[in-house]
Amino acid sequence: MELNQIRYFLNLADTLNFTEAAMRSGVSQPTLTRAIQRLEQELGGTLVYRDGKDSRLTTLGRDIRSEFVAIADSEQRIRAISLNRVRGRRETLTLGIVNTIAPALITGFVSHALQQMPMLELILQPITRDEGLERLLSGQIDGCFCTDPTLGNTKIATVEMFSERLLLAMAQGYCLASRTSVSLSDLSEQPYLDRLQCEFRTRVQNHLHKRAIVMIPRLRSEREDLIQQAVAEGAGVCMLPERSAIVSGLTLRPVDTLELSRTVAFQSISGSGTASALQQFRMLVEHHAWT
Question: Any stretches that span the bilayer, and where are they (predicted)?
Answer without folding.
Answer: 93-114
